[in-house]
């Protein structure tokens, strides 16, 4: 096995990144030239020989469908809409503007809280025992106390789990905004990030059976693998670059 092939196999099996990202990251960080088409051919040969690498390729999901779930309710006290959010949050020129959401586990009896920085694509994931607002507040206390993020804005859907948004804003020192009902694209980065998480933990996963260490490992994988939108740098790369430039 060549050095390029070994490096590809290691990156692909660990990160489940698409071939174009693997190609870009190998070139950027390891000075290894391996094209996207070469990677696809390698995966196909592996499959013909009984290998399972093809199962790690991204699958095109079904188009997102809006539905009348908790995320579309608007009966939240002192709710501030996304139309009031500073424009700089969309400019992606500074760290600290996060989209946030929850992911449901099997039978809606286990949950994850997810946060993603709009500029660096840095991801934070926490397990939730339930979807109650006070549980989410406690999770944010942990996030704020265990990370180095300078939170400026948070944007969520209209789910009842974010009803204590004023407490969350106080904890993080940020301004809290809500997307418009049935406008999932206003948190498109969060939707995409949740899709990445689902590649590791598909729908039907019981997060009660997933350890904190496994969640931390997933967070590490997502934050250290290259992204095409970041020029094949990782979220950690971008985060550290801007910290050092500040």
With strands numbered from the N-terminus, the spatial order across the biggest sheet is 3-2-1-4-5
Structural class: alpha/beta
Name the CATH architecture of the largest domain.
2-Layer Sandwich
Task: Provide mean pLDDT, rounded.
Answer: 84
Fourth-level CATH superfamily of the largest domain: Ribonuclease H-like superfamily/Ribonuclease H
Can you count the beta strands? 5
Total number of helices: 9
> Runs with pLDDT <50, length 5+?
61-71
Q: Please trace the helix and strand order, writing H or E for each element.
A: HHHHEEEHEHEHHH
Gyration radius, rounded: 19 Å
- Characterize the largest beta sheet: strand count, sense, and whether it forms a barrel: 5 strands, mixed
Hey, roughly how much beta strand do the residues contain? 5-15%
Summed up, the domain count is 2
Distance between the termini: 43 Å
Q: Tell the overall outline.
A: globular
Find the CATH topology of the largest domain: Nucleotidyltransferase, domain 5
> Quick one: CATH class of the largest domain?
Alpha Beta
Helix fraction bin: 40-55%
Protein name: IS30 family transposase
Pfam family, one: rve
GO molecular function: nucleic acid binding; transposase activity
GO cellular component, one term: cytosol
Describe this structure in words.
- The protein has 246 residues and is α/β, with parallel strands linked by helices.
- It has helices at 3-15, 19-30, 36-48, 88-91, 133-146, 165-172, 188-200, 212-224, 235-245; strands spanning 97-104, 111-117, 123-128, 153-156, 175-178.
- Strands 3-2-1-4-5 form a 5-stranded mixed β-sheet, with helices on both faces.
- The protein is globular, with a radius of gyration of 19 Å.
- The model is unreliable at 61-71 (pLDDT under 50).
- GO terms for molecular function: nucleic acid binding; transposase activity.
- It holds the Pfam family rve.
- This is IS30 family transposase.
- Residues 82-243 form the Integrase catalytic domain.
């Amino acid at each position: 096995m060549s050095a390029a092939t070994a490096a590809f196999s290691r990156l692909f099996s660990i990160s489940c990144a698409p071939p174009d990202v693997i190609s870009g990251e190998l070139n950027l960080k390891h000075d290894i030239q391996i094209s996207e088409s070469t990677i696809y051919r390698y995966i196909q040969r592996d499959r013909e020989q009984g290998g399972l690498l093809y199962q790690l390729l991204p699958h095109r999901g079904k188009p997102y469908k809006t539905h009348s779930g908790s995320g579309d309710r608007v009966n939240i006290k002192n709710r501030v809409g996304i139309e009031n959010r500073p424009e700089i949050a969309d400019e992606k020129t500074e760290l600290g503007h996060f989209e946030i959401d929850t992911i449901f586990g099997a039978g809606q009896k286990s949950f994850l809280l997810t946060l993603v920085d709009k500029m660096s694509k840095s991801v934070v994931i926490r397990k939730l025992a339930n979807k109650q607002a006070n549980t989410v507040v406690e999770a944010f206390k942990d996030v704020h106390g265990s990370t180095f993020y300078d939170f400026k804005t948070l944007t969520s859907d209209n789910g009842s789990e974010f009803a204590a948004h004023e407490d969350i804003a106080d904890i993080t020192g940020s301004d809290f905004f809500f997307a418009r009902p049935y406008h999932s694209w206003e948190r498109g980065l969060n939707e995409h990030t949740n899709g990445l998480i689902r590649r590791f933990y598909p729908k039907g996963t019981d997060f009660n059976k997933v350890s904190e260490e496994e969640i931390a490992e997933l967070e590490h994988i997502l934050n250290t693998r290259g992204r095409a939108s970041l020029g094949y740098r990782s979220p950690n790369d971008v985060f550290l670059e801007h910290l050092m430039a500040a």
